[in-house]
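Deliverable D4.2, example record:
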Amino acid sequence: MTKKWFRIGMVSVFILSLALRFWGLERFNTLVFDEVYFAKFGNNYLTHTPFFNAHPPLSQYIIGIGIWIGSHIPFGHDTVNGLTGSLRSPWTYRWFNALTGSFVPVVVAAIAYQLSYRRTFAILAGLFTACDGIFLVESRYALSNIYIVIFGLLGHWFLLLALDNQNRRRSLWLVFAGIGFGASVGTKWNGLWFLSGAYLIWVAAWVIHLIHSFPNLKLFFISSSLKEAGGEAAPVLAVPVDGGLPNPKGSRQQAAGEAEVSTYSPSSPSSQTPLQNLTQLNIFQMLFYLGIIPAFIYSIIWIPHLQLDKTYGFIAVHQQILKFHLHLGGNSPNVHPYCAAWYKWPLMTRPMAYYYQTAESITEPLPVMGPPLPAAAGQVIYDVHAMGNPFLWWFGVAAMLFLVGMLVLQPVIPWVKEKRFSMPATLSVDTWIALYLVINYAANLLPWVEVTRCVFIYHYMCAVVFVFLAIAWFVDRCLCSYYQQLRALGVTITFIILAAFIFWMPIYLGLPLSPEGYKLRMWFNSWI
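Output generated by the structure prediction step:
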């Protein structure tokens, strides 16, 4: 893919994302789902009304800024309501989220490109993210989860840019990374998992570096027969660039007998990726740039809120927030009908309705508040479902498992064949990508295993972005394969994901559906 087509592709992904998020943004002249909290809180900052918030305040600041700007723009005020505490148009408290959410696919694509310098991988990652339902829904309403994700992803992107630079430029990008991670935590506490993922991949890089550096550690990986013969184990080179998918294209032959190794940059003979440069960061740099700076940013985020509501100080307000979450109740339908434990998220067994209303006809105005009509009277259904693109999520989980298997097999195969453990002398670009995606996915999912309060599918958003990257990587390797069957598989997966997005789009955008059309999209009873 040429630079020209890459740029056209990225602009197209952004325009698609932007159009889907802004189209019909003020359709429902009410507060949808948690807008009853976040839109009101954003307006409270403008009216100087003290209030308690069970989360850090950054997203409400941003929503409040959006309301102020939107109120001074001479359009988007065809409908208004007073549900936020002031007379506001729904457009004013939603547009900033829609704009922010439009950039998420671009940032995901930027991370994919920075990991590999493969343009097809980046385009696919951005396209798949733009074609996900839950990110579309969360971007179209005054909710906070989109900010956790974009700030956390920006932190990772800036970290990768820092690793690709030196000296002052590296320090500058590391400062930006610290700010991004701090802002993510300043939106909700679970933004901390993005930062933990950065630390874990740094630790993994150092472990790999130490295994290669110290003779005593290398001896552990030498077979007993070689030790007895007084010889040394031959270095095991990297797996093929595609991590198991045949792909002679774009690779270069080393000396005879060596495996193919993917280069990181097309303009550089080096096969290093930014992730390999993680060992250039010492513990003091990590603690300063990705420890002190995020903590500082998180702390100053609280200043405007604590100036407005002086009921609690900085420590006391955190105690109250923790108390709120600890007493929220367990993962049971008795607590909330849409409670869904962490293990239900990857296969999307329990999505949730953010808005549900029925009408007798499409022309009938929807009530601002109130229950739906009786089942027999409702001929038209308006449903906004916080549900991912099913095939994107399911294929993505399979791709993530493939990456896990790829990582596990690298030391296992030498053990089975030669009865010895071994560490490749040089990890391929795709092995580093696999390590990065698996570690960050686990970092954003596994902490929820110990959470006993009622949680929902939107808590999976921080982890599922790495699933999108995983399936984009898999499809990219298929499309670049020498084998026609694999290229056909890549095209088929892409087509199914796009078709599924179009099929379920009515329940992402809240378009009118007949009862039959609604049931056609609710494949399982647990989805309703």
